[in-house]
Amino acid sequence: MPTELIKRVDWDLVYPPFTERCFSLAARCRDKGTPYFAISGYRSYPEQAKLYFQGRTTPGKIVTNARPGESAHNFGIAVDWCRDGDVNRAGLQPKWALIDYKPLAEAAFELGLEAAYFWRTFKEGPHVQLDLKAKGITFKDLRLEHDLGGVPAVWAYLDLHGPWF
Question: Which of 80, 91, 104, 129 would bridge with 72, disulfide CB 3.0–4.6 Å?
Fold first, then answer.
């Protein structure tokens, strides 16, 4: 796996079975000529709160509808990806047009992941997460586990519902 595609995320904070799928996703997209760069993985509750209030009570554009505990990022089971708009320029030139994320979403779906590109509301091309619905798990379930023992308790709970793939 070319490290430039995944180096911006601390993978120690991402659920290991999901991490493996993310690496497969990055490789599959790269091999098809549409590389994506992992730019955001785990997010703490305070980090999520800061993003949630952006565009509401602090300056900026609204970027999420998820409050703390309502985002898969808070449990290490989501990653946001970015398409480089100009691979000939040094650094990452973010390209955010929704259509540019269709190859990512299709590859994620083929790998058994959930892609926000396909959501009915608040479509979000860069966001890919573990498919909790496939196991009948809710964010309420994850919040209860998180309250008991943080992310390690969430991952232990997810392990009980595996295998995931």
Answer: 129
